[in-house]
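User: Fold this; tokens only.

Assistant: Input:
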Amino acid sequence: MGRRRHCWVCGAVLPRGATRRRLYCGPACRAQAYRERRTTERIGALGRLLFKAEALDDVWLLRRLLCPVCGRMTYAAGSRRRDAVYCSARCRDRAYRRRQRQANRDVQASGSDAVPPRTTA
């Protein structure tokens, strides 16, 4: 009786007749492993880019790679959207609230009402 082998992703037992090269129980686990490998590669590439940007004092690239609210790496194109600006929904919400507060201050400083009163004819 041979050793039981398990799927590398979910841990399920592989079928008895599976070849030695088989690593995954099915196409869903194979696809999941592929997505995880791609994410790891992208995050590694972003880390190398950040190191290079810091070494060269490339302000444009640093601004692109770091969250404008907290300064952490955004990991855009990792497991996130490629055009992600903020590192998390929390930072995105904070930036939105800051913009709203600044807009309210600007309106109050100008002395006009934010919404003009409605007139009925």
